[in-house]
Amino acid sequence: TERRYQNLLLNFTLVYPSDLTVREYDDGTSAATITFEDGVGKHGFQIFVVPYQGDTITPEQWRKDLPSGVIVEQTEVMIDGARAIAFSSTDALMGATREYWFIHGGFLYDINTYQALDTWLWDILRTWRFSSV
What we know:
about 130 residues, mainly beta, seven-stranded antiparallel sheet, three-stranded antiparallel sheet
């Protein structure tokens, strides 16, 4: 079964598997992290959101938010009308990752999961909908 997640502040919804637990973290500034995780650590993804000016991701932002600097298998996809960059990378804790980065409504979204879960995550991201303000 599935559940619907709604974020009123960022004006988006998505449908996710009901066995995942959602947690929202506010870092005390204007950035936020939303995690979707199962109880055993096999399936999950996170959404990191930070206010962002501009319509392209600068090299400085890449360096800041992607410490490994690894971007391979880069493609462009659409997430409810937002042009996103999908790519594989590496993370010190997670190992091989699959990431989706895009800018929408003055925010930079960085969505990531384990590389092996790319198809699973993409099925979830296809349900992503922005609502009009």
